[in-house]
Design a protein that fits this description.
Chain A: This is ATP synthase subunit a. Chain A: It is a multi-pass membrane protein. Chain A: The chain crosses the membrane at residues 48-70, 107-132, 138-155, 175-197, 203-226, 233-259. The complex is a heterodimer of chains A (276) and B (195). Helix content of chain A is 70%, strand content 5%. Chain A has 276 residues and is mainly alpha-helical. Chain A has a two-stranded antiparallel sheet with strand order 1-2. The model of chain A is unreliable at 11-19 (pLDDT under 50). Chain B has one domain. In chain B, helix 3 packs antiparallel against helix 4 (181-188). Residues 1-7 and 179-195 of chain B have low confidence and may be disordered. The chains are: A mainly alpha (276), B mainly alpha (195). At the A-B interface, helix 1, strand 2, helix 2, helix 3 and helix 4 of A face helix 1 and helix 2 of B.
Chain lengths: 276, 195
């Protein structure tokens, strides 16, 4: 936690300026670190910030880990291969095959990529010296959600035909005609807007809130330690809480990666098989 | 974007640059994984499944073989049993037959023996009867001849007869003890039979 405190102390120092007297609560500025490198292509501004570097490092670490695990893969697995394989078969069997169904296996590579990508990036939120997940930037979950949205709509159209797919989405079978006034807008909104939006926001908000929680306890601890009187005692409690929340965060990291992938599989299931 | 500007930024409105970076990064990651990692894992899974299935198949083949051997063994055992039963039945039947034959033979034998005995008895009886009949006839003739013969004989022989009779009596007196007198007598009268 101290590394987080150090990292954020810089931000606070830059931000706080002369207001040394009171506690500076972490703000949304946490997620907008200064750009290390800036450039512009085709009128789009690119800012390579600390978070983007973490994003790339986490993704690279994932690729290195999995490529090493898969290289020299044999029938009797080594430790590294076993870990990689377990993750892959969790997604392949538990989601692609069991959630999507018999047509699900072709989606296993995509789902597994999604899972590991989110997992490693989530993990950066408690990784020492990084302490912030790229997924707490809305852009990354949004990109993933949009890819999922495009994929399941494409698959739905390809598997069921455009007319059938949109008709089933707008008019779910088995709904009385009178109720359609209510159901049709909700269903359309749900399939084409709410699904990708919630998918992205769920992941983003979890990572965002987790980071905020950790920062609050860490910075609070630092502040209380230096506050004098009996406050260092509360500072210690605050650090303890930060530690506890770190473990909680670990749970959230895995859970959110899992949930994102399972929901993707569920949407793909709806696209592959006609509504019944 | 400086920090002051970030203060007012909406976290749900990400800058386009970040979206592009995120898209490209995920695309690269997916490409690498889909090309170098997941196929290798799939390959390993397949190899493993084949190894397991091969083992199962081998075990099944072995089991089938064992089953076949057992069936064969059982069939042979059953065959042997029926054969033994057959042989036993046959032996019993043969023994019965032999017994029957022996019994029949014995009966035949005894019947034959009895028949022969009866035959022999009948023959000897016949013989005795014949002999007796001859002797009785002869004796009767002899006696009759003796009673009346003397008078009937011609004169020429009459003289001789008395003498002979006397001789005979003399002879008989010597041999009468053994009962051959009769036989001697008959031999004496043989010329009469020629007559």
């Amino acid at each position: 936690m101290t590394s987080s405190a150090h990292a954020l102390a810089d931000v606070l120092a830059a931000e706080g300026g002369g207001e040394e007297g009171g506690f500076q609560a972490p703000s949304i500025a946490e997620f907008y670190p200064p750009a290390i490198f800036e450039f512009s292509v085709l009128g789009i501004d690119f800012e390579i910030t600390r978070i983007i570097l973490i994003f790339w490092l986490a993704t690279a670490a994932m690729l290195v880990f999995l490529v090493l695990a898969a290289r020299n893969a044999s029938v009797v697995p080594g430790k590294l291969q076993y870990i990689g394989e377990s993750g892959y078969s969790l997604v392949r069997d538990g989601m692609a095959r069991d959630v999507i169904g018999p047509k699900g296996l072709p989606f296993a590579p995509f789902l597994a990529s999604l899972f590991f990508f989110i997992l490693f990036n989530n993990f950066m939120s408690i990784f020492p010296f990084a302490q912030i997940s790229p997924n707490s930037k809305f852009a990354i979950p949004l990109v993933l959600a949009v890819i999922v949205w495009v994929l399941y709509n494409y698959i739905g159209i390809r598997e069921q035909g455009a007319a059938r797919y949109f008709k089933d989405a707008a008019i779910p079978p088995g709904v009385p005609i009178g109720a359609l006034i209510l159901v049709t807008p909700i269903e359309l909104l749900q399939v084409f807007v709410i699904r990708p939006f919630t998918l992205a926001v769920r992941l983003f908000a979890n990572m965002f809130a987790g980071h905020m929680l950790l920062v609050v306890f860490s910075l609070g601890g630092v502040y209380l330690l230096t506050a004098g009187g009996i406050f260092p005692l509360f500072g210690a409690a605050s650090f303890l809480m930060a530690l506890v929340m770190t473990f909680f965060e670990l749970l959230v990291i895995v859970l959110q990666a899992y949930v994102f992938t399972v929901l993707t599989a569920t949407y793909l299931n709806g696209a592959v098989e006609p509504a019944h | 974007m400086n920090i002051r500007a970030a203060e007012s930024a909406n976290p749900l409105l990400p800058p386009v640059g970040e979206i592009v970076i995120g898209t490209i990064t995920f695309a690269i990651a997916f490409f690498v994984l889909a090309k170098f990692v997941w196929p290798r894992f799939e390959q390993v899974f397949r190899a493993r499944r084949e190894a397991i299935e091969g083992g199962i198949e081998r075990a099944e083949a072995m089991q089938a073989e064992a089953q076949a051997a057992l069936e064969q063994y059982r069939a042979q055992l059953a065959e042997a049993r029926t054969e033994a039963a057959q042989i036993r039945d046959q032996a019993r039947a043969e023994g019965q037959q032999i017994l029957e034959e022996l019994r029949a033979q014995a009966q035949e034998e005894s019947a034959r023996i009895v028949a022969r005995g009866e035959e022999q008895l009948a023959t000897s009886r016949q013989q005795v009867v014949n002999e007796l009949r001859g002797q009785i006839g002869r004796l009767a003739v002899d006696l009759a001849g003796r009673v009346v013969g003397e008078s009937l004989e011609d004169q020429a022989r009459r003289s001789g007869t008395v003498d002979r009779f006397l001789d005979q009596l003399d002879g008989m007196a010597g041999t009468s003890a053994d009962g051959r007198g009769g036989a001697t007598g008959s031999s004496v009268y043989a010329p009469q039979g020629d007559r």
